[in-house]
Structure prediction request, 235 residues.
Amino acid sequence: MIACADAWRGDGEVLASPMGAVPSVGARLARLTFAPDLLLTDGEALIIGPDGVTEGWLPYRQHLAMVTGGRRHVMMGASQLDRFGNQNISCIGDWRRPDRQLLGVRGAPVNSLNNPVSYWVPRHSPRVFVERVDMVCGVGYDNAAAAGPSALRHHRVRRVVTDLAVLDFATPNHSMRLVSVHPGVTVEQVRAATGFDLADADGEVPVTREPTAAELSLIREVIDPAGARNREVRG
Prediction:
């Protein structure tokens, strides 16, 4: 959750759109600590504070303006991710006759081309981190570049947070690299759980920062006292 919260660090006044319990806890933690300008919604039509109190109205037209103008940072899930940040949430296998049908493309193309995107993966494995996704839903760096300048204006795949590590695309060719490993996890474990070669990190790979006592208190007592976050990660 700390790594998810840190994904919004330095964003300023943008709309946070976390998808899932852990990203939601992360966004609210960021708002309560180092990112007070972050905007949160109830997922429908209201701007809310970290405590759920209504702060304003967000009509659909205004929401769409944020979506298409780079003023939102989404954290989505992924059934597959490849080395350039292409995401698949639609199907496994050939899309014309898939082995498994998933959520569908949904809003992933618009999200990934029109505002910064990060990903939360609760099970880091070679089944998720694949050489090439079976279908492109969220657009990665290689496909955005191939689409031309208009696709690159707001396209940014910021980071990927998993149960093992934090990764990003800050390499010359925008291929995925290892930023940090979580406490108790080794670099070898992360590489073994990834279905392609990760770009070499600059120097020794650090350990992801742990929450402070104050952050832990906020998570456990204020943001998520019911423990919804625990249903997304292994104990």
Residues 79 and 89 are 5 Å apart (CA to CA). The first helix runs from residue 2 to 6. The helical segments are 2-6, 21-32, 60-68, 108-114, 141-147, 149-152, 187-192, 213-223.
